[in-house]
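Supplementary Methods S3. Complex input for the flavin-adenine dinucleotide-bound model.
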Amino acid sequence: MTIATDHDVLVIGSGPAGLSAGIFTGRAGLDTLIVNDGNSILQRNAHLENYPGFPAGVNSRLLLEMMDDQAERAGCQRHEAHIETLERTDGGFVAEVESGKTFTTTYVVAATRNTVDFLEGVEGVEFIERGKTFLKTDDRGRTGVPGLYAAGRLALQPYQTIIVAGHGASVGVAVVEDSDVPFYHDWVAPEGYFTGRGREVPPGCEEIDSAERERRETESLERMRKYFAERHPDEPIQHPSVREE
Ligand SMILES: Cc1cc2nc3c(=O)[nH]c(=O)nc-3n(C[C@H](O)[C@H](O)[C@H](O)COP(=O)(O)OP(=O)(O)OC[C@H]3O[C@@H](n4cnc5c(N)ncnc54)[C@H](O)[C@@H]3O)c2cc1C
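Predicted complex, serialized as structure tokens:
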């Protein structure tokens, strides 16, 4: 018997990998909960200069805030807590946080960089030890355990923000493809792009007319102006072993 779960997808970790995965699963209509505790290691960066789209670089804390906002707009729910344990159930997984609260979910995307202790009770997970611990996955983040995926640095991706974000997106799309949600691509196309050729708009895609395009672009401009109106207040987080004077 398959037991109904509270969520379709539980993303553990809200660094660039986890947030990107959530943006794709949320936009596909999967009920997605992102649970995070602590800081993304990207908050230690001083100025992010190799993330495409920002010719003069961008404040990495601002970028994370913008990704977070985007995940929320994609429909993701957020919860701040440390996942202590993960167990398989008939219909998926149950995750427990330090307060004893539990979340049930069909799919799990682990995007916790090198934190793996919560996975110790999950039979079939293969760890890779290279000074730090990583998870063995296929090229779309699938671990050997059905329904359990790993994204970003945890899946041994190169330690670069654009790569872990892209990998998170790829894993998010893999979850959608493995689920019951009909999906072609997550595309927003101009009106007529499919229907003008006598095709149905494929699942996951959307056609918008010029008025809607103008509305969305105007909203985007306003939002970006707010984000980039002044310097971000947060300083980079220093390495814990660096002594403060
Ligand atoms: C000093 C420094 C400078 C850098 N500069 C650059 C740069 O210039 N360009 C570049 O491309 N990359 C840079 N990076 C690398 C970049 O930060 C990483 O590639 C990226 O952050 C990895 O993303 P991730 O999502 O895999 O992990 P993270 O961003 O670390 O996210 C993991 C999240 O999971 C949370 N978490 C862990 N365990 C649990 C748990 N059990 N329950 C709940 N939450 C949990 C963590 O607290 C964290 O928020 C830099 C890194 C450092 C340290």
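The CA atoms of residues 188 and 237 lie 37 Å apart. The chain has four helices and eleven strands.
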